[in-house]
Structures are given as C-alpha cells and as structure tokens.
Amino acid sequence: MLILFFSTTSFLFGFITTNIAQSEASKNHKVLASETQISSDDANFTNLIVFARFSDEDEFVDNTYDGTTVRQLIDNTYSNCEYNISDYFYSVSNGNIKMQNVYLFQNNHSLQLSNPRGYYAIKDDDLNPNGYESGQEGLRRLDLIDDWTNAVNNAFASGAMPTSIDGKKTYSISDLDKNNDGTIDAITIIYKNTTQNISVSWNSPLWNYQYTTNAVNIEENEKTLQSSAYVQLTFTYENTQKTLNYIDMNGTRFLSPATAMHETSHIFGLLDLYRSDSSSQIYYMSLLGKPISPVGQFISNKEREAMGWLVQNQIKTLSAEGTYRLNVTSSNIVADDVLAYKLKLQNTNKVLYLEYRNFKGTQNKFDSQKKQLFLSNGDALKQIHLKSGLVCYLANADMKIPTNLNTTGSNWNYLALGGTQSTKSDCAVGENESIYITETLNIEVNTITDTYLEFSIYGDELKNDTHTHELTHVAKVEPTCISEGNIEYYHCSICDKYYLDQNATTEIEKAQTVLQKTNHNIVVLPAQEATCTSTGLTEGERCSTCGKIIKQQTVIAKKPHNISDWIIDTQPTTEAKGHKYKECVVCHTTIEEAEIDKLPSHETNPDIDDDNNKPNQSQNKLDTASIILISLAGAITLGGTFAIIKIIKKKKRRRF
What we know:
- This protein is mostly beta strands.
- The chain has four domains: about 1-5 and about 35-270, no CATH class; about 270-465, no CATH class; about 470-515, no CATH class; about 520-555, no CATH class.
- It has six helices and 41 strands.
C-alpha cells in the first residue's frame, strides 16, 4: 500500500546586484565548515540525500560550475557554507534539531530512473510528445514516486550504503532513523537540472514539493525501515547568462538554500502561510510566507512556539498595561531571553503576538540583510530592504500551527499587522512609532537597540486584571538522572501564573514546580590490559540508568611483539629451497619470512661428494673412515683401568 501526502509551495526570488571590484571571496576558495556543523554523534535527525537522473540523461554529480562539482555544491548548501540548511534548522529550532546529511550513491554515481524526464511533464505534440494530458498530473506523480523509490530500493538491495559526500565515511541503516520510530527521518531527492525543452509548472510532478510515502523499505537485522517524509528538488546551476551559485564570506560556493529550507520545514510540521493564488498577509515575515532568495529568513516566534522550539518563559503572556522589553530574535541559541509576548484579545478568536525582528543588524545571520554574499562572478549581492522593529501578528486562537491555505477574502488565520507593502517589508513598528491593534488597544515603541526593544501597551483588555483563568493541568513527572521532573501544578495561559490547585487559590513560582535531577547510578567499566594483538582500556565509569559515560576510558596502545630468532620450518635440498621465519613468541604472529637457497648438487660441483652437501654437517664430521680401535686390555694401574683409543682417519684419495 502506498501512502501519500504532499505540500505545495510557491515563492518569490528577489535580489539586486551591484558591480563592485572583484572580492577576494570570488576567487577559488577551499570549503570551510560552518561553526555549528553537526557531528554524527550529536545528530538527532538524518537527511538522506539521493541524486537522481532520468533515463534520457547522463551523469551529472561531477559536472563542475566555477570549479566546484555538483556534489560539493549540494554538500556545501546543506552542511558547509555559512548559511547552510542544517545550521538554519539548528538555529530556528533553538538547538532542538541537529541534522546531519548523508548520501546514497550507486557505484559513486547518481541513481538512474526508468522513465525520461518528459514523461513527468505536460504533453506538447512538438516538444514533449510523451508527456501527460491535462488532468493526469496525479497519476504521473504516483509513477514518479514508484520510479525513484524503486531506484532507492534497488540500490540498497545491491549493497549500497549511506555515506558522506566523499564516500570516506559509511553510515549504518539505523543512522537513518535517529528517533527509532521505524521510519527514515527524511529523504531529499535531487534531480538533475533540466536541460530538455519541457514545461514544469506549479503542482506538476516535477515541481519542488514535500511528500510522504512509505514505498522505500530497507531490511536490516530482520527489521524493516520505511520511508516517510521526503522532499524533491531540482536545483539550477546556470542560465544562458551566468552560473547561479553564490559565495559566502569564507569563500565557500553554494546554491540558494531558500527553497530547500522552505520545503524541509514541512517535514517538521510547519505549514504554508500563503494561499493557492500566492497571496499572503505574512509574506517576508516568515520563511513559510515567502522565502527570501538566496538565503531564507527566520520563521515567526508563534510558529516556533507551536513546534515546541521555545521554552515557556521565552513567550510570556501580557496581563497588565505597562512597558515591556523584548530581546531580538537571534540565530544564536538562547535559553531565557523573552522573545515574544502574546495577548488573547477580548470577544474575538484572535491572539496577538509581538516580536522584535532586526533585519539591519547581525544578531540573526538568516534575517540580516547585511550578509556578505557574492555572485559567482564576484559581484556583491544587495539584499532587499526590510524594516526592523516590533512585528505584530494576529493568529487564530484555536489553531496551533498556523496556515493560510484554504482561507478566503479577509479571513486570514495568521497575518502580520501594519505596513503598506504587500510583501510586508515595512510592517514593523519603528522607534517612536505606534500602532492600534483594536480601537482601544495601543502599542508604542519607545526604544530600539541592536539587541532589544522596549514598548508600552495600553488598552481595556489590560485594565483591571479580572480575567478568568485558563488553566492547564500539568501532571507530575518524576526526575531522572538526565532530566528534571516537575510537581503536579496548574498554569494560566492568560496571566502566566502557576498554581498548586485547580481553583487557582495557591500561587507558586515557576521554580517551585521543578524537581531536580537525580544522581547517576555509576558502574565501573573495568580496565583491559593491552596485548601485542589488541589495544587496552583504562578504567572508566558509566551510569547504568541512562548510559551516560561519566569517566571516559582511554585507549592503551598495543604492546610490541616479542620476536623470536629464525625458525627453519623447511630444510633446503638440492632440488628445492627451504623456508625460515620469525614469529612473536606470545601470539605466534609471523613477523618476517625468508627463503633458504637450494643446496648445491653433484652436477653443479662434482668435486664435492654427497656428505659435504648435507645441511648442518660439521666439517669435522667423520666420513667413511676407518676407525681402528686398539684396545689395550689388561693395562692396569693401581689407580684404575684405562683404555687407549686410537682413531685413524684415512685420507680420501683424489680421483683423476
């Protein structure tokens, strides 16, 4: 059975270039890793990247653009450049997503599909006669899923394994399922760039989408790992005028990651904030509205809250009039900074969200419109202008993850207030500016710095704190040695206060709800003595409950072999060579081997008889000699008996 879900996207790419003297960044540069590049041991999410080409296409992964291969451009985009996709999700998730990217090759090549590219594009009698008729998009989309999933299944069946981009590191099948739910965390299919003269439009099988399918099945240790969410993409590497890659401040060449960021975000559950006609009331204020090219911007803090990527004290509820401070939405990982305020509006189904976005600063490298980016020819990339300040959103109170799909007219589930531009590029409230949220609710921005913003809010909703508590019951969680627990308590989402009882009569501080971690249960990892065949280990410690290593064991180098003298295991003869060797007297590993030359024969040296050819005979050994024993019997002395033995060796007569 094939299970299929998909999410569509459309987006606007906008940038302006200005010609400047060629920067050092436009030269041939080595690849530099991002500062937050995720190691395999730390990763909690794996993205399996698969290069695929259609049946009428040649190999492309080693095609070069400005001296960089396709495979390296893709790896730079996902893992290495300053604005790489893994780094984006690490930042936007507040450190919750640690994504590693691995690759599936077949004999170091891309996977070949069974149909030509035109089969998955709309029919054109002249240019694409094998394409589909209008209305058959859905069937051809299923055919495409069958095509690439069969190629992936066949690759694994033939012994292919996930590797690093250069093939030097091989990953296990289990590495594809970091959360151990029986499914591959994510698959990204990257098709060869289009060279055929075919039409690809929105919602067609070849469009950039995020889907879900269970058609990939990998067997390992009698367990089946299935595919789930995947993204399909076609990157563009050049047009008729120039190559289309970018260079970051470190000189790393990469492709625009914006579309991949947008589509990959759907895998984590984020939804589109535009309508099917591409209109949006969020637009540039979120990646899910309209991603900015080449580098996608941050999502809103409402979306981050919905995904569980912000902790409770980072979004606070307004309960009284007054002046408040907001910290800037940063790409750095923060723990306690207040990043947003929210307020349930009276007599409506709307919740107001407030956040500070600084597009002209450098605190958020993805939001910043001062990125040091260059086109492939060395021209500096000038980003679009976005106004910094207080961004005010209205969200439906009954919708956890906002989306504007299937909305009509003035009924938007999620919108950014203010501004005159349809792109929302000017919707932020600047310093000494104000905005009316309702007829009686007013917000004034008092101070803006690079790192924080102060605002004052006044209105009937915040006068006389007589609200009805909206309490959420939190069950008791026992602490462990790796995580804190909590007591049973109640939390009001309106006033952001904590109570011991469901009637909200006994208020407590948030810190009082926390139960501290328990101690580790330490077991000793015994030391292992090194030998000449294996390394040893020092003594270590491990927690028997959580498995955490408390005291790391250190490897002890192998001992040297105890080498013997030469040992002859085959004596040489006049017809065959002999053999000798040296071995370790402890482990009996052969250390060195050598041959022993043949013994000389009569034919090669007739002057030497057989006795002289025998190995290990002493030159003093008696040959065929006459031994005359003269026994003097009866020669007796007072002190005892003695015998005189005379040995006469007859000289061998030389033959002439």
